[in-house]
Design a protein that fits this description.
alpha/beta; six-stranded mixed sheet; 13 helices
Length: 407
């Protein structure tokens, strides 16, 4: 049987680590190794690891000399893996018992297998169905990227994929050390450089959202600097090579997605007047940061919102946001930044959509029928869907709407 190396970066996850390890050890596909990289945990995570390592020789433990972050830990795993394939698992998550079996049955000669996931809040039940809309089958790597971006189904997290180790080695794909959001760069390289990608439209991974996780601890100097580094690196890779038009458009949308996240984070960051020491050793990036940030502040625009139109929006008694994807999420954050109350979020159908976005419930459009004459609908999707959605709104009797890019 082909060997799979499962890599787990570990830092202070004593309450979830056992469930994670059990889910891997319970796999129906048994030929794997588990590489656990302990990043100087200060809780009992190491004790949990040692307990399980005594029970199963497939578990191997590395201890970092100091706390170095997820990117470094994952790279340690990559350097020591011996499997033909790589699977990343975060230590507070867990996987379906047949994840490896299903992936190995269909991997063929592909460089990656991409699959869907579900999300839970703490130990609660499923609260989100990700909008992964790429059908089962083998794809050319760049065709897959274009299709996933076009369907708003791009998943940046590295744990949503099985990788051929030789593919990562041959293309020298590793994680960028020292930053947050290293997933953005890693996944971009994989999508662009993969020759063949198999899509498996099944939820095989469970991602747990924790209040104390890195992604939930608020905006910091390091997170702002990390976004800038990611944007600069993405642009460097994009400009280094010629792509066909379809691939170029998908890459540009990928970069715009990251830029939107940066802009949203920057506007919520409470230390905008300070110098960004995190970028001091990268003078070129620091210069770009200063230029980009000044434009964000002084141009009067953010994600297309301008001061005049903000006043126009405030005229309406009810504000409804149409859409439940990443663009809609960014719009929610911006509206919240400007203290514009959102009455709710609308979608055509709840099937496959999130149940809430940043505390705002998602409902089907017809549930807002009673206020259709008193509300403004902001279309929070990519512009190519505006006409279709506008016709739908008009057909249901809504009279006022605008696209987020047209505001």
């Amino acid at each position: 049987m082909t060997m799979v190396s499962v890599i787990i970066p570990i830092y202070n996850v004593q309450d979830y680590l056992a469930e994670c390890l059990e889910s891997i050890l319970s796999q129906t596909y048994v030929n794997f190794e588990i590489l656990c990289i302990n990043d100087c945990s200060t809780d009992d995570s190491l004790a949990v690891l040692r307990k399980y390592a005594k029970k199963d020789i497939r578990i191997k433990i590395w201890n970092n000399d100091r706390n170095r972050g997820q990117a470094y830990s994952r790279n340690v795993g990559l350097s020591n893996a011996v499997g033909d394939f790589i699977l990343f698992v975060d230590a507070d998550d867990f996987i379906c018992p047949d994840l490896l079996q299903k992936c190995m049955e269909i991997v063929g000669d592909s460089d990656m297998v991409c699959f869907d996931y579900k999300q839970v809040m703490g130990s609660e039940t499923d609260v989100k169905q990700d909008r992964y809309q790429v059908e089962d089958g083998m794809y050319d790597g760049r065709d897959f990227l274009a299709g996933a971006v076009g369907r708003e189904s791009i998943i940046i997290a590295p744990w949503s994929k099985l990788y051929r180790r030789r593919f990562l080695l041959d293309n020298q794909i590793t994680f960028y050390n020292g930053i947050i959001y290293e997933d953005i760069l890693f996944s971009f390289q994989c999508y662009v450089k993969a020759r063949r990608i198999y899509s498996l439209k099944q939820k095989l991974y469970t991602y747990r959202v924790r209040e104390q996780s890195t992604m939930r601890t608020g905006i910091t100097e390091k997170s702002i600097g990390s976004y800038i580094i990611c944007i600069c690196e993405l642009m460097k890779w994009y400009l280094r090579e010629d792509f066909d038009q379809k691939t170029s458009e998908s890459i540009e949308e990928y970069i715009r997605k990251v830029s939107r996240e940066y802009i949203s984070a920057y506007r919520r960051w409470g230390q905008r007047e300070r110098e960004l020491k995190f970028l001091e050793d990268k003078p070129g990036y620091l210069k770009i940061y200063r230029t980009f940030s000044e434009l964000c502040v002084k141009s009067g625009k953010i994600l297309g919102l301008n001061w005049k139109q903000l006043e126009e929006i405030r005229r309406y008694q009810y504000i409804i946001l149409y859409g439940a994807g990443d663009i809609a999420r960014s719009a929610v954050e911006i509206l919240d930044y400007y203290d514009i109350p959102l009455h709710g979020i609308a979608v055509t159908s709840m099937k496959g959509n999130r149940k809430s976005i940043l505390g705002n419930l998602v409902r089907e459009l017809d549930e807002y029928h009673d206020i259709k004459g008193q509300c403004l609908v902001i279309i929070g999707t990519t512009p190519k869907y505006y006409h279709e959605i506008s016709e739908q709104l008009k057909g249901q009797g809504f009279t006022h709407w605008m696209g987020i890019a047209d505001i």
